[in-house]
Amino acid sequence: MTPPPPFSSSLRLANIEDLPRIGIVAVGGFYHSPDFEFERPRHDDFPHDTLANYRAFYRHAILDPGALVLVSEDDYDEQESEAVHRALRDIYPAPADQRPAHKLGKGRVIVGVASLVLEADVKRHAEFLPDGTVDSLWNTCMLTNVGVGLGPVPDIHLESPDDRERDKSGEAGEQFEKYLTAPEERWFNDRLEITTMVVHPAYFRRGHGSTLTRWCTDLADLDHIGIGVSAQPRGQKLFSRLGFVEKEMVEVKGYKEHPESISMWLGVRDRDASKGAKSQ
Fold it and tell me: pLDDT for 28-68, tens place per residue?
């Protein structure tokens, strides 16, 4: 099998010990996206729930044989908490509570995160799991009679008691399901899918989103497969610049707690396997 695109000193796969920091990056960055407020209208009252929920999401993705999580690193800014919104700033953990002890003092921190679903790229399944995870998953599945595959992934690590989702609206989830599921299946069914892309606000406009996206598109090109993304319109500029073509702009209707609709931009990037060129 063709090796994946190379990593670098600032780009690598995530592992379980990164989850405390990944949660901070996710909450800080996603807060600026309209779908964050749409999905989590009570975040300001329950920021710990939001933080725990994102950590649970990325834990699942890290342990999923049919997915991967990338992280981008940069030099640590001691004033980074000043760049996030107040609800997160009020509960902002100390550095020692965000990073494992052996990484403290090294001056580099995770500042960007991306998750990629590999469902359409079967030969890559389980390739990007953290060391030792395959054996752990296998043993857990043997004990619980759950098959190793695209899910559900056994919860090897306990859930956080804060992950009660009091910040979220069930109605928002229903609206996403009603308006977004079918278009995403239509355009992403036979492609890789970038499911999340987020950068800590203190490290905006340093190229981290582009770096994370390019690694994903490079993987798709190596495997001669398309790749799709569902993003806010503000993300359209980034993805369009990197070869994604708009397929649909989906309006997700509002609900009682958030009556305004939001728009989701669906874009794809395909590579012609015989000519090695992008197709639209």
Answer: 999 999 999 999 999 999 999 999 999 999 999 999 999 99
Say how many CA atoms lie within 13 Å of 36 toward its Cβ: 18
Long-range (24+ apart) CB contacts under 8 A made by 127-131 are 127/1, 127/4, 128/4, 128/13, 128/67, 128/68, 129/62, 129/63, 129/65, 130/13, 130/15, 130/16, 130/62, 130/63
C-alpha closest to that of 69 among 260, 216, 226: 216
Whether a cis peptide bond, with omega within 30° of 0, leads into 152 is: yes
Report the helix count and the strand count for the chain, using DSSP H and E: 8, 8
CA distances (Å), 178 to each of 37, 111, 143, 215, in order?
A: 18, 33, 36, 31
Quick one: average pLDDT of 69-97?
96
Alpha helices in 99-227 (DSSP H): 133-144, 170-188, 208-222
**What is the number of residues in the chain?**
280
3-state secondary structure of 140: helix
Q: What mean pLDDT is reported for the chain?
A: 88
Torsion angle defined by CA atoms of residues 170, 175, 180 and 185, in that order, rounded to the nearest 10 degrees: 60
Tokens read off for 112? 């960007």
How far apart, in whole angstroms, are the C-alpha atoms of residue 207 and residue 10?
A: 11
**Helical residues (DSSP H) of 90-169, grouped into ranges:** 133-144
Q: What is the pLDDT of residues 66-78, one digit of tens each?
A: 999 999 999 999 9
Of 199, 227, 185, 266, the closest CA to residue 5 belongs to 227
